[in-house]
Amino acid sequence: MNEHLKSIEEFSAKLQVMLKRQNYFAGEINNLWVELSNLKLKVAGDTYQAAPPPAMQKIPKPAAQQKPIEKADPEPAKRFEPKPEPKIVFRETKSDAAVEKFIGENVISKIGIAITIIGIGIGTKYSIEHNLISPLTRIILGYLMGMGLLVAGMKFKPRYKNFSAVLVSGAMAIMYLVTFSAYAMYGLIPQIPAFVLMVIFTGFTVFAALKFDMQIIAHIGLVGAYAVPFLLSDGSGRVAVLFSYITIINTGILVLSFKRYWKSLFYAAFALTWIIYLFWFIAQYDPAKQFNISWIFLCIFFVQFYICFLSYKLIKNEQFAVTDIFSVLINAFVFYAAGYAIISGNKITSEFPGLFTIFNGVIHFIVSSVIYRKKIADKNLFYLIAGLALVFVTIAIPVQLDGNWVTLLWTAEAALLFRIGRSKQVS
Length: 427
Description:
Number of strands: 0
Mean pLDDT: 76
Structural class: mainly alpha
Number of helices: 14
Distance between the termini: 81 Å
Strand content: under 5%
Low-confidence stretches: 64-72
Shape: flat
């Protein structure tokens, strides 16, 4: 019985709400009718006779209802007064706001900081050529500019995160530029303190990118730093300084890309490093003077990217993709091609290109063996690295030998591979 009473009360309450809405709509219909009659009267003049408003169908009052329903319009006289014409308001849509925010916070700010950095570089070069201010003053002003942008970026971080990130990244790029200029052009900072400062800037840039959790800081602050040696180059040909500088930058970029899984940083560092190295090697390499430098930094760059690539696969458990094939092949064959050219162009090592080729195969064989025994990666990665080892071993035969030896060893290798494939059932 109580449940039925409760249901009756609920239905009565809902019915009261609906009756209130009906009264409200009835008032609105009357208002519209009056406005329509007034418009017809203006058009037809005195000949028009206004018709009465349409009668509304009355809904019987429920028996359980005790209180009368309140009227939606307590003053019916005001109902027939003409209402003011509504104002047209143009509202900004969400898409327009998003586009405006993207342009304001991302595009314009990045263009602005790029213009600032380029302007500082051009201004520095101009002041150098015309001796407008002393070298020490230029360096001090450069550091003050960088510190000002850095402080402003940190201050604006709570309210304008994107804009402050651009300021911080621009500040770090300026710090790199000024430090490189103070060492390479003016000799105001010795070599060891200059590289200590660059290591500090790299560490702080990594910290700032992690703190802001934004790639833009790393892209502008670190990748943008690759342009510094070329903007301030005086033609002295200090390639050891250049490659040491790039090694420091690469270390920061690769650590950051692995820490936050920002693969775009890895690809940017990979492409820029090998482009710079190959451009120098083709255009300016001197075998008589730069053999050791070219060989040392070739190995450093190869190991850096190889370890970073394997770390993604083994530690991050990243899935094997098509881009991985290109990354490994480009890294391996750039290292081999440049190393082969360096060894062949030197009188002492010109007899050992085959040994170098075998050395490449051994490196990849060791890596593939570790992957296979530990079972710490996808099989596709094992096949790729093992295939590289096999390729270099195959290449080493015609590189080091000639004539019938090539035919005999290739035949033996083919037989060995056929035997392994049949016994292990690996096509």
